[in-house]
Amino acid sequence: MMVSRVHRMDATTSANLDRFLESYELYGCFWLAPAFMGSDGPMPVFNRGIGMYEIVVRNAWEIGMNDPDAAGVLADDDVIVPAGTQNPPVQELQQWQKKRDIKVKLP
Q1: Contact (CB, 8 A) for 57 and 24
Q2: What is the pLDDT of residues 10-34, one digit of tens each?
Q3: Which of 58, 69, 104, 105, by CA, is between 20 and 30 Å from 13?
Q4: In this structure, what DSSP letter does residue 87 have?
Q5: pLDDT at 107
């Protein structure tokens, strides 16, 4: 069994992701830290942070059934698949999600 929490952020550009990945490439790590909203804006609590030294960035079309990242793909997502790609793994995943997402009408 696996539990996950997904928070989707649908950005209009990839600028923030690009900057993050560029910094990660430069430093080889990043920190996850809690923060609270102070009077001057967000206040990170660095002494409670977790250093991360590995990140995996994947294309959505590469995610298929029984993949831990499947929770990040929804049945109605418009996944971009490279031209010429035959049977992308995400296709089976989304078909399965659509079948199990049956809406029940109560009386």
Answers
A1: no
A2: 889 999 999 999 999 999 999 999 9
A3: 69
A4: S
A5: 60
